[in-house]
Amino acid sequence: MLDRGAHRKGAGRAGNVQSAPSGAIPGRVAIEAVDVTKAYGPVLALDHVDFQAYAGQVNVLLGENGAGKSTLMRILAGETQPDSGHIVCGGHPVRFRSPRDARQHGVAIIHQELSLFPFLTVADNIFAGHEHRRAGLLDDRRHRARAAEILARLDERIDPRAKAGALAVGQQQVVEIAKALAHDARVLIMDEPTSALSNAEVEALFSVIRELIRHDVAVVYISHRMDEIFRIGNKITVFRDGRRVAAAEARDVGMNWVSETMLGSQQRAALAHMNADRAERAKPAAETVLEVEGLSLASPDAARLLLGNVSFRLNAGEVLGVYGLLGAGKTELAESIAGLRPDASGICRMGGVALAEGVPARIAAGIAFVPEDRQRQALVPTSSVSDNMVLSSLDRLSSGGVISRRREDETAQTMIADLSIRVGSASQPILSLSGGNQQKVIIARALLTRPRLLILDEPTRGIDVGAKAEIFRIMRRLADTGLAILFVSSELPEIMAVSDRILVLSRGEVSGLFDRAAVEEADITRASVHVAPVEPAL
Fold first, then answer.
1. Which of the four pLDDT bands, split at 50, 70 and 90, describes residue 201?
2. Mean pLDDT of 170-188
3. Dihedral pair phi/psi, residue 245, rounded to 5°
4. What domains can be seen in the chain, in order of their start residue?
């Protein structure tokens, strides 16, 4: 273990780090990051960060999207190299040049997206990459026997001979843990391990985690589900804007402490003017544009519901914010309404008329959708700004099947001016624009379909603060013209700043529907970890 004086530089640069009244958790530090910094171009992902994970405890790591959690975990697991600072593992400074290096020091990571080979057996998956051999051949008997021992340690009755792809998701998660234990992992990093699990599978996973800490394994647990962290966590560390801002024992703090430390006063202040503007522009109830009744959606394996009996209405000129933690069903709700989820059940009405299934029918009814991942789901990266912008409205720009370039250019220039898109020419490549201006182009494309309802799924993801403020101003201006907006976000300050009402989802179900003028952040946070509604629908 390094002398604690070596940590003072990092602690000083990390800002005002808060601690629980009782101080640090006693125990042996299994792994720690010391004064670690990591930048991606101009973006500082980690800013002189210190982090400790204790053996025999569940070390919870919290923070908003982009706070630096995943970057740090990739560094601890050897997947990414820090620009400065170092790692201490088992009391000794180490340098992990690869995941293999990390595993050899007893550090393993289980990502949210599982990495099993579905057509191989459980035993083959557990020993993939470090197989036992006898006379030059794979020792299948030893693999099965050792796999059975590890699974028994985890109190799991999984047949080592079963194909991994035939297992339930919760069992696949256990196999991933068994893979780590086969490497004799003493530090196990789990990134959103319950995001795809049913309630029963979550309980089974928690039993496995408790068994791990009884064997003195240090579990680093990343989750957005607040109810889980207080059930399973021992220590909580909070990151914000690439810095460690707070650390406490879970038993000494509550939901309000977590909310305040995750969000921070500076972020709230940056959006305070939007709150005031929203309040001044509040309107009486208007015509109902969208009605959703009993919307449900099963997971691909039908093991659980991604959406369960969701119902609400959305009025003209209103911004309805949709908030929830990771896995709450926000994107699934947006995609179902947009017609991208043909297996969804329930009724969606526009102007009192039930909508037909499919994306073309929803567009024709007046629904425009801006997806969460613009790079993979919205942009045509090899095309120009203009071509990307008019992609969904070519029928109005063509005559006899021939597109009018003049009309296309005029349309693009009008939208560029209207949305203040910073671009030298509409003909320049879309990828030459900043993330915020790319997002404006996608919004312009949606608006050119002349919608009555605009669905925005995480519209500010990956853009800077100034671009976010511009997107918010565009949203409010569009609402003032009578457009109904469904605004999906995992950023609570944004939801609070822009929305007129807030729909909260928890594990696919409506857990609250609030008037923004009569609700506080703590109310929304509490609702996001409940399943039963905490407020009557408005």
1. confident
2. 82
3. -110, -15
4. 4-106+186-263 (3.40.50.300), 116-185 (no CATH), 269-366+451-528 (3.40.50.300), 384-450 (no CATH)
